[in-house]
Amino acid sequence: MTETANRASTRKGPRGKGVKIERIYTTPGVHPYDEVTWEKRDVVQQNWKTGETIFEQRGVEFPDFWSVNASTIVTTKYFRGAVGTPQRETGLKQLIDRVVLTYVKAGKEHGYFASDDDAELFEHELTYALLHQVFSFNSPVWFNVGTKSPQQVSACFILSVDDSMDSILNWYREEGKIFQGGSGAGLNLSRIRSSKELLSSGGTASGPVSFMRGADASAGTIKSGGATRRAAKMVVLDVDHPDIEEFVETKAREEDKIRALRDAGFDMDLGGKDIVSVQYQNANNSVRVNDEFMRAVEGGTDFGLRSRLDGAVIETVDARDLWAKIAKAAWECADPGIQYDDTINAWHTNPETGRITASNPCSEYMSLDNSACNLASLNLLKFLKDDDTFDALTFQKVTELVITAMDISICFADFPTESIGQTTRDYRQLGIGYANLGALLMATGHGYDSEGGRSLAASITSLLTGAAYKRSAEIAAVVGPYAGYARNADAHKRVMRKHQAANDEVKTLDTIDGDIHRLATKAWNDVVALGEKHGYRNAQASVLAPTGTIGFMMDCDTTGIEPDFSLVKFKKLVGGGSMQIVNLTIPRALKKLGYTGETIEAIVEYIADKGHVIDAPGLKPEHYEVFDTAMGARSISPMGHVKMMAATQPFLSGAISKTVNLPEDATVEEIADVYFQGWKLGLKALAVYRDNCKVGQPLSDGGSTAKDKAADAAAEADAVKVEKVIEYRPVRRRLPKRRGSQTTSFAVGGAEGYLTAGTYESGELGEIFLKFGKQGSTLAGVMDAFSIAVSIGLQYGVPLETFVEKFTNLRFEPAGLTDDPDVRMAQSIMDYVFRRLALDYMDFDTRNFMGIHTATERARQLETGEYTPDGGQSGDDVEDELESYAQSAPVAKAKPAEETKHTATIPVAEVKSGAGAASAREVSSDVHSSAELLEKFQGKAADAPMCMTCGTKMRPAGSCYVCEGCGSTSGCS
């Protein structure tokens, strides 16, 4: 390759002691960039509400299998340099090289690689994995690494504040610097004395809630990273703090104020001009509860609130009464969440250094005060093989590769404060995780809320963290353990044994999780043995983050640990336009469950119409749970979410960014029970959200927010309802008077015939004529009628794929040998004709799924073990096939045949939906995201904020929200 002149040195030879890099994906002597087909795209982004063009960059270069959404988000979010200047990055190669080569250079300088060969292999494997969306680093890496900006790689920070004015003002300053850089921070205010205690001067202290007001105003003023979204922050207070009740009720009381102001006519939507008049809206609040308090709740006893000065009990409260107030506040406004202090610190690897008192804004990173964590997430669906088995060995190898890169980044990283930098360099906390768990479970036929689903998730998470700590111990053998390891060695090794013991408790239920678990068991055995000998390079290794923006970068169907958001999705198309599609893992799941052919097609068609699987034709009720989603007609129960978190928590260094959604009619007692069961099941943190509990959630029309039920009823009584009925009908696209055509003579079983195919100017098939038998014979008449029927269907937009599915493999005479080298045997005339049409007019992806190949492709398969197309469209992403469906439908243009030529290599038997056009259809003009599409199916507004950048309704991602249109998030990742 010549695109980048400054790649890692190709000098060979031994370097000495270092990590040996294993080949995973790459081909010796071939750079990963040379194995894919690249294309140039125009990225134009608009705010659909205002019509304003907010971004435009034309001619950006991406692999042809990257979706429009992924390339748009990467271009707008991660390309560096001013648009329109020579310094602006113009393609994915430049972006990946900027990051990867920085990591390689630092790895070589700090002695991570055993040889230059290992350094080069590390470069190629890391490049391949990023290029093929196998994993992604968190956003700050893409923002900063390899630029002239400070090399900040961390998304998550934990600060500290003491009981002094200097410390409190320093908190404001440090938090502001972090927000300015586009990241988020959390801290615990429990060291600040309460408003019920005295100052040294004799006056009464202000209390932490008072100081929260100033920090909230600061956060609301500083736009995060110079963008339009608010800052992300977490505020924690211990349950034994004397001001705990004031803290608990703070945001609930502000919600009452928002409601009153809204009813008085003020604009109280998120981002509204009057919302700034209320306080405490820029932070997530959490109560840090300990086992003593939870046992008091369980037993119905009193609990003491303690002085911050000497720890003496200054007030006694009824534990259940305080617990009820926490649940009621969460019922009213979704705050506060809960953090379980004793559970968190029982899994703490560095207790000799200090306790864990707080978390980052999304609650997945929990570690020492004044520390930072850089994150990366693996795309689980990339490890699901064609035979529906999980490639656990490759998953382990990729985890080891990525954790190596993440540790290298700390060697060159910059931090917002010196104290954060020092703690992070001393303890080297990492946060590897994954995305697409929900899609993986569905594709393998597991319900999210099922024992099988939880067993599979637990096994994968155990292997993830086991592989990460195994590599951490191997790196420690090369460059030494983290600086704080010596004083915490016993505690760290104790936590490793706790992880190992938890792994031994996993009960596997089938082959897929059994195979993963066996590999995880071996990994944990290696972790304990290697750690005993070498120590560990990293105090922490894993978390489960929201994966909002990077989830879109990897074209994930689901984020983090979340289930699928909905079964029907909104999808942008190449060249503009959009479609409503059925989740592409659904046909694969149906096939895994034993459904075939027309049944799969009928179920997918039903889902496309209804948005759910209830009463879908041919679908067994016992399989409904596989297709349960976060939202919609069959939404997962609150305890289903909690149990999934509990299944994975014992295998994580940190915690899980996830919000447990409850319906609007959920009770305060149900929220209290969810929080209580979280403690019982060993979670580290838990947050809830009751539908429509917050007033300040804008509706899709940009008007005022959801009103109280009484107001709604009055409005409905006065309103004149006008129902607009829109009927969509297919439009016939006639061929031009003069059109190109080709005639193929053929013989099937000794019987001769002729096939004439006419095409549009684009090269798309529009008509066929079959001549078989003498003119005037019955057979000739039937063939003429059949040809006309197929031709009209093609002109009305029926995809050729649908005809090929229906008419290939039909058996009747004449049948047998043909004179066509590409189709040597045919089971009937129809079988031959539609195989020939498929070869001439269908893209390779779809033909490959159907098992229809040319003689040349079959020959290459025998040589290489892979089918290599000699024409047609390519891509290794399932979404590409759907895009070809959409392009052949009346609502989208088809690409000319000459524009889709390629030389990419496609794995044999790549799984595709095979659902015809059932999963792709036109979207009405008022739908701009999957959240809005779900509103259409549900008939009610989704409780989510609008993106302040592009106006699209956001959707949940962990405990944050993420925009499908531009990738903006309300969190810190």
Low-confidence stretches: 1-16, 224-229, 697-723, 871-918
| Helix content range | 25-40%
Q: How many helices does DSSP assign?
A: 29
Tell the overall outline.
Answer: globular
Largest sheet: 10 strands, mixed
Decide which structural class fits the backbone. alpha/beta
Strand content: 5-15%
Please give the alpha-carbon distance between the first and last residues. Answer: 33 Å
Oligomeric state of the chains in view: single chain
What is the residue-mean pLDDT, rounded to a whole number? Answer: 84
Radius of gyration: 30 Å
Give the beta-strand count.
Answer: 24
Domain Ribonucleotide reductase class II vitamin B12-dependent N-terminal: 43-133
Domain Ribonucleotide reductase large subunit C-terminal: 154-689
Domain TSCPD: 736-840
Catalytic activity: a 2'-deoxyribonucleoside 5'-diphosphate + [thioredoxin]-disulfide + H2O = a ribonucleoside 5'-diphosphate + [thioredoxin]-dithiol
Index terms:
3-stranded antiparallel beta sheet, 39% helix, 973 residues, alpha/beta, 10-stranded mixed beta sheet, disordered N terminus, 29 helices, 14% strand
Describe this structure in words.
Helices cover 39% and strands 14% of the residues. Helix 7 (244-263) runs parallel beside helix 9. Residues 1-16, 224-229, 697-723 and 871-918 have low confidence and may be disordered. The protein contains 29 helices and 24 strands. Among the domains are: 1-132, no CATH class; 567-628 and 865-923, no CATH class. It is an alpha/beta fold. It is globular, with a radius of gyration of 30 Å. The strands form seven sheets. Strands 3, 4, 5, 6, 7, 10, 11, 12, 15 and 16 form a ten-stranded mixed beta sheet that branches. Strands 13-14-22 form a three-stranded antiparallel beta sheet, sandwiched between helices.
